[in-house]
Amino acid sequence: MFALTEIAVSGRVVDLIVGPAGAGKTTAMNALRRAWEKEHGQGSVVGLAPSSSAAQVLAEDLGIATENTAKWWQNHLREGETFQSGQLVIVDEASLAGTLSLDRITRLAAEAGAKVLLVGDYAQLQAVDAGGAFGMISHDRDDVPELVDVHRFTHDWEKRASLDLRHGHAGVIDIYDEHQRVVDGDTEGMIDAAYAAWRRDLVAGRATVLVSDSNESVTALNNRARTDLILDGTVRGSRESELHDGTRAASGDIVITRRNDRRLLAGRGWVRNGDRWNVVDVRRDRLMLVRRAGSSRRNSVLLPADYVTEHVELGYAVTSFRAQGLTTDTTHVLVDSTMTRETLYVAMTRGRDANVAYVTVDKPDASHDGPHPGENDEVTGRSVLEGVLQHVGAELSAHETIAVEQESWGTITQLAAEYETIAAAAQRDRWAALVRASGLSAEQAVEVIESDAFGPLTAELRRAEANHHDVAVLFPRLVRARDFGDADDIAAVMRHRLTAATARPAGAGRTRRAPRLIAGLVPEVTGPVADEMCQALDERRDLIIQRADAVLDRAIAVGASWIDKIAPLPDATNLREAWWQSARAIAAYRNRYTIKLESVLGPRPEDTDQRIDYARAEAALNRARRNAEHEHVELAHRVVRQRSSFGQTM
């Protein structure tokens, strides 16, 4: 309540309330409405929302006049409609409002002496138009009230887990898994499992919904659901209407309208985009009589045949975007690697009693008849979910985009790319000479040097040299190893041979030397390089190390959980330096590949180049843990020796 009081008396034109799914934003808005109207009079609070459905819900929840933002702007342009001094303008679902729309509203409110309250959640779905304003303001201000008590869910654990899901904390996957809320398998199996669970809930009388981000899956699930409902007699009409996506509907079906039409009145309301309806009857002329889901006969309307054909869909399965705003008993969510954190969070917070993720771990594709080289055989439901939580889809404002772009120029991603580009240019002539002297024919040498794979080959040569291999000896030997037959690309073949031959640093046992890697990750250039190129490379090398150290320092300062998962910082000076070297490599990897998960390295990557860096970071992690174990053993031995010495003196 203190936060609401602060909003009421802040004196600012724009204030915000941020709240996760099911956190009682409506209750907070109602309390503020009552307080505002007590001070400014009845009708001094008005509402706006990006969609007509959201505006209608806001009107019903708060008992105020509402409109969708697009229609309100049209009314302003045509009829001069505007705000009044002392009004409170509540914009609900503000994260879905475009930046231009919010700018228009706040500008007119400021001119009129009104106040705007933006209500929403930056962690849910964003505007279709250019957006990001709500998220920018909520992140820039340090006094934005954020509701944290989640009321929607039946189970206390899910209330807490939903907040971790919202923030992308990977550890929450284990919590959902422990409560049997994560199932994984191939796509077909997951579609079957999700549908079967939805069907059981439906038969049990629960309000339930299927959610998928694939329009094809939504259509297939809707058709499947309808077929079963026809067989059990729920859908029983003899006449059907064809809907806009090619599906059909009859009496007993559930449908969703997809276009606002104020001429089609249903009770006190009208037909809105996103409304759910029960089909009562399909007339001979294909007019469709529908009743608003969960309401009385007075909320019925006769939909014209052309509206049905163009703007109506079945409503058993929906996308995450259509699901936002729904509350059901249970939700069954098809998850794949293309989802974002926001769509997953929205989908997994619709059900009061249960929200279950059915995670697909394959890649269904007509061209994939079997496993292909380079595919990751270790994909699991957890690794897919970790990737989804790391995939932030929220749009940034223009201001935030500029800041991110400026920041990106100092990341290891950028610095390593610059280093490798300079290295390729600086050593191109050297590697071309090596190819010509390797035993290849003149024609083959030209083919290699002009190949698109020559760049990756030279990068592999640099990596091999950083691993202390004598490439001047090794490369010709690999050329002679076997002929090239009818190889399409000799450069690609040689890169493959070189990669296989130099997977480990040269030498064995005590003679093996550590690879020459910048920040434990980027192979360092060796061999002759022009002075100006050498200076440019040295500058990038130093910046990469500085950036890795800065990332590590920051993680330690804020107590990042991934730091604690490496190994304790040793007490011994020599081991402490070794720990820092290992942690620096991990920090460099996380920064280069934008790893934001709580796990140290994130999911095992599928990309070939990233897999190489992952292996380097993983080796650094293992070294740090071995050193920690070594120190622990040494400490134990020291204690034993001290006790033994003490016993002898006795």
- Largest sheet, if any? 5 strands, parallel
Q: What average pLDDT do the residues reach?
A: 85
User: Unreliable segments (pLDDT under 50, ≥5 consecutive)?
Assistant: 364-377
Spell out the CATH superfamily of the largest domain. Answer: SH3 Domains
Distance between the termini: 69 Å
Please name the CATH architecture of the largest domain: Roll
Classify the fold: give the CATH topology of the largest domain. Answer: SH3 type barrels
What is the C-level CATH assignment of the largest domain? Mainly Beta
**Helix-and-strand structural type:** alpha/beta
Write out the strand line-up for the largest beta sheet, numbering strands in chain order.
1-5-4-2-3
Number of discrete helical segments: 24
Number of strands: 21
Strand content: 5-15%
What is the chains' assembly state? single chain
How many domains? The number is 4
Radius of gyration: 31 Å
